[in-house]
Amino acid sequence: MDASALVPLALERDQWFLSVRRNLRALRESGTPELVTSNWTYYEALALCRRSGMHTVSKLRRIVEAEVTAVRVDGVAEAEALRRFLGWHDKTASVVDHANLLVALELGCAAILTFDEDFVPIANGTGLRVLR
């Protein structure tokens, strides 16, 4: 899960709230998905939630602790994410986006749930579906 999909879990007025609910419902209807994110992406989502207050931060923390596994970005993934970021001059994806993608690939995830259009070009050719 990308930060753009994590934030609406805790913030109902987020523009992607209904889309996240729809996607999660569809995933759950087809089985029991394992929801994962990188720790960097989780921290980014917490920072975004902070704009709405600590109650939103606390709500996201409870949801992630119960439903989402936050996987640490190790040194190898960090170096590769930075290399990719610095080498993709025509793309706008962040270092965090690259790290999240690398974690998803390492774990063998089938898809990334994101509403960040920057994710589409970096996921292209990886075999990961981009759910929106």
Terminal residue distance? 11 Å
Number of separate helices:
7
Strand and helix order = HHEHHEHHEHE
The rough form would be described as: globular
Q: What's the rounded overall pLDDT mean?
A: 95
Helix-residue proportion: 55-70%
Class per helix and strand makeup: mainly alpha
Overview of this structure, please?
- The chain is mainly alpha-helical and 132 residues long.
- The strands form 2 sheets. The protein has a two-stranded parallel sheet. It has a two-stranded parallel ribbon with strand order 3-4.
- The protein is globular, with a radius of gyration of 14 Å.
- It is built from 7 helices and 4 strands; from the N terminus they run H-H-E-H-H-E-H-H-E-H-E.
- Strand 3, helix 7 (119-123) and strand 4 form a beta-alpha-beta unit.
- The mean pLDDT is 95.
- It has helices at 3-10, 17-29, 39-50, 54-67, 75-87, 95-107, 119-123; strands at residues 35-38, 68-71, 111-113, 129-131.
- It starts with a helix and ends with a strand.
Please describe the structure with a list of short key phrases separated by commas or semicolons.
4 strands, mainly alpha, 132 residues, 7 helices
Task: State the gist of this model.
The chain has 132 residues and is mainly alpha-helical.
Secondary-structure topology with pairs:
Elements: H1 3-10, H2 17-29, E1 35-38, H3 39-50, H4 54-67, E2 68-71, H5 75-87, H6 95-107, E3 111-113, H7 119-123, E4 129-131
Parallel strand pairs: 1-2, 3-4
